[in-house]
Amino acid sequence: MKILILGADGYLGWPTCLYFSQRGHEVVGIDNYFRRNATKELGSESLIPVPDLPQRVKIWEEITGKKIDVHIGDITDYEFLLNIFREFSPDAVIHYAEQPSAPYSMIDRDKAAFTLQNNLTSTLNIVYAVKETNPDCHIIKLGTMGEYGTPNIDIEEGWLEIEHKGRKDKFLFPRQAGSLYHTTKVQDTDMLWFYVRTWGLRVTDLMQGPVYGLSTEETDLDPQLMTIFNYDEVFGTVLNRFIVQAIAEYPLTIYGKGKQVRGFLNLKDTMQCAYLAATQPAKQGELRIFNQLTEPFSVNQLADKVKTVGDKLGYKVTLNSIENPRVEKEDHYYNVQYTGLLELGLEPHLLTDEILTGLFNIVSQYKDQINKKAIFKGIKWK
Ligand code: USQ
Questions:
Q1: Which residues fall within 8 angstroms of residue 269, CB to CB, at 6 or more apart?
Q2: What b/e string do you get for 163-201 counting C-beta neighbours within 10 Å, with b at 16 or more?
Q3: Separation of CA 164 and ligand 1 centre (Å)
Q4: Measuring CA to CA, which residue among 314, 316, 301 is closest to residue 259?
Q5: Any ligand 1 atom below 6 A from CB of 211
Q6: What's this model's pTM, rounded to 2 decimal places?
Q7: d(CA 285, CA 157)
Q8: Is there a contact between 34 and 119 (Cβ–Cβ < 8 Å)?
Q9: 260 CB less than 6 Å from ligand 1?
Q10: Which residue CA neighbors atom 34 of ligand 1 most closely?
Q11: How far apart are CA 149 and CA 307, in angstroms?
C-alpha cells in the first residue's frame, strides 16, 4: 500500500512510519515541526534528543535499506498538501497532524485559535485533497476518547441507536468534550461525517485514549530511531509523566481526587490499530468508528502501579494530590465498549509490571536531562 502519514515527526507519527515501512509499504511522511517548536517555546523539549526528520529517515535507510520520503511543511497550506497527494496518490492517509494537547489549547486565546484553525483546516484540506485526487483513498483520522467526555451512561463504539416518541434512528454517540482541543476533535468527526454522507468518502475515526510507552519493534533497532518523548504538563501524557516524575523523585502530580478514569493503551498498540485499520479499510460511504484503548485505569491506579514498580527498582516514589488545574469530573461512571479493533485482530500489550519496568529502564538512561521545572506549571482551565 501507499500510505501518507501526516504528523510524521511526532510521538505517534514517527513509529507509525517505521511500522508501515518495515512491513513493505511505501510511506511518505509530512510534518511542520509544530511539536518541536512549541515545546522549545515552552522550555520543555523531548527528554530523548532526536535527529530532525530527514536525518531520521536517513538512519532508517542505513539500518534497514528501506526508504521513507519526507516533506517538511504545513498541511493547512492546501496547495502544498494537494501537490503531495497528486504526486504520491496514496491508498490511505493517516492524520496525526493536529495540535494534540488539551492544556496547550487552554493557555490563552491565541493558542485556542491556533488549535481550532490548525485542527479543522487540516482535516478539511485532507477531505478536499482526497476528493480532488482519489475519492477512494481511505482517510484514517486520529480522534480521541475525550470526545465522549464522561457521561453517566455506557460509552458505545461511536454510534447510539435512539428511540424517541416511538421512532428509532442511529446517531453519533453524544459528545461533550473537556477542553478546546477535545472540542476540535468533536468538530472533526462531525465534519468527516458530513463529507462521508455527502461525497461518499471512506473514513475510519479512531477514538484513542492516552498513550504510554516508548518502545516499538522498529524504534528499538537503534537509539537514534527513538520517538519524541515529552513529560511536561502540556505535551506529556499522564503515565509517561509519572514515570519521569518517579525517576526524578518528584512527587507524582495526581490532579484532584485522582479517581478520573481514562482508557489507556501502549504505543505498540497504537501502531497495530493504525495498521489494522489501513489493511482492513472502511467501505466507500462509511464512517467507521473504533474506540482505541486496551484498559481503563484511574489516575490513582496508575500512580499506585508506578509507585510499586518504582519502589522495587530503588526509587523513592511519593504521591501528591494537587488542586486540579482542569475542569473535569474526578469521580464518575465509566464503562466503554471497545471490541471493534479486537475483532480486526488487535493483540493488546497490557500494562504489566514488566512493561513498566522496561519503561523505567529506558527513561532512567536520560535521568540527567529531566528538567524538573517543566513538570508542572499549573495551566488552569479557568
Ligand atoms: N492527569 C493527572 N496528572 C497529570 C496529568 C494528567 O492527574 O500530571 C490526569 C488528567 O487530569 C486527566 C488524565 O490524567 O484526567 C489524562 O490526562 P492526560 O494529560 O494524560 O491526557 P489528555 O489531556 O486527556 O490528552 C491525552 C493526549 C491527547 C489525547 C487524549 C486521549 O494528549 O492527544 O487525545 O490523551 S483522552 O484522554 O482519552 O481524551
A1: 294, 346, 348, 349
A2: eeeeeeeeebbebebbbbbbbbbbbbbeebbebbeeeeb
A3: 35
A4: 301
A5: no
A6: 0.98
A7: 18
A8: no
A9: yes
A10: 144
A11: 28
Q: Which of 297, 292, 302 is nearest to 271 (CA)?
A: 292
- Tell me the H-state helices in the chain: 13-22, 34-42, 53-64, 78-88, 102-105, 109-133, 180-199, 238-247, 267-279, 299-312, 340-344, 353-364
Query: What's the pLDDT score for residue 147?
Result: 98
Residue 210 CA to ligand 1 centre (angstroms): 6
- How confident is the model over 140-154, as pLDDT tens digits? 999 999 999 999 999
Using DSSP's 3-state secondary structure scheme, residue 361 falls into: helix
Ligand 1 center–CA 352 separation, angstroms? 20
Q: Which residues, including other chains, have CB under 8 Å from residue 209's CB and lie 6 or more apart?
A: 144, 145, 262, 263, 264, 265, 292, 293
Q: Give the model's pLDDT for residue 145.
A: 98
pLDDT in tens, 164-178: 999 999 999 999 999
Closest ligand 1 atom, residue 101 Cα: 32
**CA-CA-CA-CA torsion sign (147, 151, 157, 160):** negative
Grid cell for residue 152: 453517566
Instruction: Give the mean pLDDT of 318-330.
Output: 98
Pocket test for ligand 1, best of 144, 240, 305 (most atoms within 8 A of CB): 144
- Rounded Cα gap, residues 299 and 35, in angstroms: 25
List the residue whose alpha carbon is closest to atom 11 of ligand 1.
Answer: 255
For residue 325, give the ligand 1 atom closest to its CA. Answer: 11
211 near 12, Cβ under 8 Å?
Answer: yes
Minimum-distance ligand 1 atom for the alpha carbon of 235: 32
- Rounded Cα distance between 252 and 194, Å, is 43
Which of 101, 238, 261, 324 to probe ligand 1 with, by most ligand atoms within 8 A of CB?
238
What Å distances lie between residue 78 and 3, 88, 195, 347, CA to CA? 19, 15, 17, 37
